[in-house]
Amino acid sequence: MMRLKLDSLLYEKRLSANQLSKMTGIRYPTILDMEKNESKAWSPENLNKIMIALELEDISELIEYVKEDGGNEESAQ
């Protein structure tokens, strides 16, 4: 499954979900859902806004593939 690395990026950049919401114009509850990986889908527009705000150069800095193996999740970076 695909998973956002937003929680670790915010921690690394010392930003809160509220600050990112203000920087991007994305609703705070949406940012929280994305941070917790509770969103069912991500809009390309929102992903682009986040990449710009966090100064990311590649989508792989924001999204990772996590292999699901019989209940065990393992990151494939």
UniProtKB/TrEMBL annotation:
One of its GO terms (molecular function) is DNA binding. Pfam families: HTH_26. This is Helix-turn-helix transcriptional regulator. Residues 12-62 form the HTH cro/C1-type domain. InterPro entries: Cro/C1-type_HTH, Lambda_DNA-bd_dom_sf. It comes from Paenibacillus hemerocallicola. It comes from the Bacteria.
